[in-house]
Each structure stands twice: as structure tokens, then as C-alpha cells.
Amino acid sequence: ETAGRGITAEKDGDKVFVGNRAFMEELGISVNGIENSGMTEVFVAKGETLVGVISLADKIREDVPEMIKTLKAGGNRIVMLTGDNERAAKRVADELGIDEYRSGLLPQDKTAALEKIMSEKKKGDAVVFIGDGINDAPVIMLADVGVSMGGVGSDSAIEAADVVLMYDKPSEIVRAKSIAKKTMRIVKENIIFALAVKFTVLLLSALGVAEAFMMWYAVFADVGVAFLAILNAMRALKTD
After folding, report:
1. End-to-end CA distance of the chain
2. Is 125 in contact with 102 (CB distance < 8 Å)?
3. What is the full per-residue pLDDT of the chain (240 aa) written as tens digits?
4. How far apart are CA 108 and CA 207, in angstroms?
5. 4-9 own/partner pairs: CB under 8 Å, 24+ apart
6. Cα 106 from Cα 84, distance rounded (Å)
7. With a threshold of 0.90, does the pTM exceed it?
8. What is the 3-state secondary structure (H, E, C) of the chain?
């Protein structure tokens, strides 16, 4: 194996090379005249002779275009990082409406690209990386939130991820984000409410106001606040 390029095997005394365009050029095997079709090309050569080319294309999941549209409408920056060639990457980016993409990336290149993106983020922002391959595992770990697919994802990617989508539907990211925002809003409401009530009871107690009812105030500030906070938190169970 030549990392990021291709593989070499031997059959009947002849060497067989399978890999990308750069691999063939390194071996001195001419691939001139073969136009890039906008797909990922895998060249096959026997000795110094090119014998064929295999064109591969990723199938875009049905729910992804709508997911990209929703995220962009929410003001999110979307960048595609891929090891595919420029034309293949551009074809997918155009279909999905992605404005930024980086193509021809090796695993270490993906890491470097993500580090650059993270260095550009604004305060309070979070970088989410979605991937399912073995090469994605280091980048998933590096991101603020790493997401992998539970069904098609590699074991290493799943192990590295903070979030695993069990049904392999990337659009669930939008729903997960909505649930997370609602949950955090409820948490902040409960904290503010509890502190406000307890501070009020402490202040009334210190000022000696309504001493006859201070026991009931204290009970409400303890048990009552906890009960109301639990009821408020139950709203998180209802999701769209």
C-alpha cells in the first residue's frame, strides 16, 4: 500500500497497480487523454501499461439537501472536507449547495483543514464534524462535537464520536441541535428561577419581613422550587 495513493500487487509474475491519477504519474504510467468525469477515478495498470479505469461516485442521501438548506438558513457555515478529486468534490458541492469545500485531502490534510477552521471560529461557536470512515476518526475527535453514523460508520469513527446517529440519517443533526437548544434554554430557566426565589426568601428573612410566614416561604424555596423545576424540565420530553 502507498498511503493516500494506491496499492501494488503481483499476479503471474507481473506487477499490478491500482490507485489514483497521482499514483500513476509517480509510476511513470501515462493517463493522458482520460478526461476527469467528475467522479472518483481508480486507475488499473499492469506493468507499465494502463489497462482500465474505474469511476466511482458517492450517492447523496435523500435527506441531506434539505439538511444543508436548513443549516444554511440558520446561519451556519458549512465546509465539505473530502479525499475525492476536485471535479468530484465540486459536483457534490454544487448538488448540495455547499459553497466551501476542500478536495484531495489525505487524513493529515483533513486534520490540518479542521484546525484552520477551528482557529477561525467566533467566540461561542462550536465546530461540528460529521464523518463515518476510518480516516475521519482523528478529525471527529478534534472537533468540538464529533458525529458518526451508527450503521455504516467504522468502529473507530463511532468510538471517537460524541454523537452517533443510529439511523444513518444526517438530517437528524438538525433535530438534535433543536433538542439541545431547547434543553439548554430549560436548564437556564430553572437556574434563574431557583436562584431568584431563594435570593428573595433570604432577603425577606434578613429584613424580618412576614416572619410568621417564613417557614412556608422556606418550604416553597426548597421543595416548591424543586417541584416546579421538575415540571418545567418535563417540557424537554416533547420534541418536534
Report:
1. 48
2. no
3. 887 789 999 988 889 999 988 899 888 888 877 766 677 889 999 988 899 999 887 788 888 998 999 999 988 999 999 888 788 888 889 989 998 999 888 888 999 999 999 999 888 899 999 988 888 888 999 999 999 887 766 778 888 889 888 877 888 888 888 888 999 999 999 999 999 988 888 887 777 776 666 777 778 888 889 999 999 999 988 876
4. 64
5. 4/83, 4/106, 4/107, 6/42, 6/43
6. 10
7. no
8. CECCCEEEEEECCEEEEEECHHHHHHHCCCCCCCCCCCCEEEEEEECCEEEEEEEECCCCCCCHHHHHHHHHHCCCCCEEECCCCHHHHHHHHHHHCCCEEECCCCHHHHHHHHHHHHHHCCCCCCCEEECCCHHHHHHHHHCCEEEEECCCCCHHHHHHCCEEECCCCCCHHHHHHHHHHHHHHHHHHHHHHHHHHHHHHHHHHHHCCCHHHHHHHHHHHHHHHHHHHHHHHHHHHCCC
Cell numbers representing residue 35 in the block: 478526461
